[in-house]
Amino acid sequence: MIPIDAYTCLKALHVACALLFVGGVVASSLVLATGREARARVAPVQRRWDRLITVPAMLGVWAFGISLATSGGWFTYGWLQAKLVLVVLLSAVHGLQSGQIRRLTAATDVKPLRAAALVIPSVIAIAILAVLKP
Amino acid sequence: MSTDRWRNEWLYGPEPIGSVVPTVESEQADLKPLQWLGIAAIAEATTLLLLVGVAVPLKHLGDWPLAVRVLGPVHGFTFVAYLWLLLRSLGAGLLSRSEAARLAASAFVPVAGYLTARFLTRRVSGRPDRGSAR
């Protein structure tokens, strides 16, 4: 049996939160990309999902990620700095989307974000940086 | 169908009653992102002040780096939370782009976060703000 240390636990929680967060961002992008009527129907459900799952997951990603980076002393490494930029970008996209979904629930139409196209390439780059640590 | 509704109520929320026309109460509720942003501005300003005013001098003058090691990540977390709440308010249409840019810049200046919080409190309570006239 493999002993479970604090680092492994933090890493597992960080990955779990990251999966939920990315799922939420992709779902928000899809809701905002659908037609006007569908958006108005789905927006309240997406807003609630955001509040209950995606936002706590994002806070978890940051809290566990910062703890991991501090414990490993990695803040000076280039791969982590690049990853941080991408995670800030993802968080920024999600912040804007979250506000837009709030507007949709108040029956105000919004234009989908162009920056949402960066979500998938950013997630791929984050995974490569986190695993390979180049 | 009603059983499904009960099962999914955590996500769908309670059944809407009556008209969906926004009321005065819902108008008030829509300013919640600005209230949260004000709280985050105070937290961000306080951690920045403690970092720059206490932890950094302790590290360089008192040879005690632990304060920076603790406060650095805490400030990083509050900064990202502030940025996310700022973008959510922008996405929700509660702030203009120039206001959002001004509030983002204020996050880099010690003490400016307190002025940001005052500006946001005035905005939420509906009192005129001297800065917004510019």
What does this structure look like?
The complex is a heterodimer of chains A (134) and B (134). By secondary structure, chain A is mainly α. Chain A contains four helices and no strands. Chain A has one domain. In chain A, helix 1 packs across helix 3 and helix 2 packs antiparallel against helix 3. The mean pLDDT of chain A is 88. Chain B has 134 residues and is mostly helical. In chain B, 71% of the residues lie in helices and 0% in strands. In chain B, helix 4 packs antiparallel against helix 5 and helix 4 packs antiparallel against helix 7. The radius of gyration of chain B is 20 Å and the shape is globular. About 8% of the residues of chain B have low confidence. The interface between A and B is medium-sized, with 29 and 28 residues.
Task: Kindly list the characteristics that best describe this protein.
heterodimer, A: 134 residues, mainly alpha, elongated, B: 134 residues
Shape of chain A: elongated
Task: Using the CA coordinates, give the radius of gyration of chain B.
Answer: 20 Å
Alpha-beta classification of chain A: mainly alpha
Mean pLDDT of chain A: 88
Biggest pleated-sheet summary of chain B? none
The poorly predicted ranges of chain B are 17-27
Please state the average pLDDT score of chain B. Answer: 80
Give the termini separation of chain A. 31 Å
- Portion of residues within helices of chain B: over 70%
Quick structural overview:
Chain A has 134 residues and is an all-alpha fold. Chain A contains 4 helices and no strands.
Layout of secondary structure:
The complex is a heterodimer of chains A (134) and B (134).
Chain A: H1 6-33, H2 36-72, H3 78-105, H4 119-132
Chain B: H1 2-7, H2 9-12, H3 24-29, H4 32-60, H5 66-91, H6 97-106, H7 112-125
